[in-house]
Specification:
By secondary structure, the chain is an alpha/beta fold. Helices cover about 25% and strands about 25% of the residues.
């Protein structure tokens, strides 16, 4: 495990979300354009990372607090599919074990992660209805796997976005395992 902080180097606040079409654990192809919610959270996750395992329940809970016309969470796995516990078959197991209530997609080429500038898992990007980046950063204030969250950072930002309020801090780095790039 290589502890890594998310980076603001590629996608800047106000940038349009790079489009993608990726296969989901439901065996369907999903495109960003398929979703018409007022807020879209694209979060790079994986199957093995202790940071993802610690926050995945928080992400599932976040999606359950909003209907999909308000917020659509989209999970993307960009890790090398040959890395231990990764790959599509393990994504199916992970999705079932954690009762994911949002699309979980595989980015085998890793092109989507590169387009977004994702570097860690979890690495969340929150977009408005026009698919413009409004926040890049943590799900909550629990930065270590064993930490208990006290501040629901992403939920607070989604609520501000839906109310038309400004998000004061547009980048608040997430901490997680590095994305496992193909060699």
């Amino acid at each position: 495990m290589v502890k890594t902080a998310s980076s603001p180097q590629i996608l800047k606040t106000g940038s349009r979300a790079p489009d993608f079409t990726l296969k989901g654990v439901d065996s369907m192809m999903h495109s960003l354009q398929d979703y018409k919610s007022k807020a879209t959270l694209v979060v790079f996750i994986c199957n093995h990372c202790p940071y993802v395992k610690a926050r995945i329940g928080d992400i599932v809970t976040l999606q359950s607090k909003f209907n999909t016309s308000e917020l659509q969470v989209i999970g993307i796995n960009s890790n090398d599919p040959n890395y231990k516990d990764e790959g599509f078959d393990n994504m199916l197991i992970f999705a079932n074990e954690h009762k994911l209530n949002f699309p979980y997609l595989i980015d085998e080429s890793q092109d989507v992660a590169r387009a977004y500038g994702a570097v860690c898992t979890p690495d969340p990007f929150l977009f408005d209805a026009d698919r413009r980046l409004v926040f890049h950063g943590r799900i909550n204030d629990a930065l270590e796997p064993e930490a208990k969250p006290k501040v629901p950072v992403m939920e607070n930002n989604v609520r501000k976005l839906l109310r038309g309020e400004r998000i004061e801090k547009d980048f608040d780095p997430s901490i997680g395992c590095s994305i496992k790039w193909k060699s």
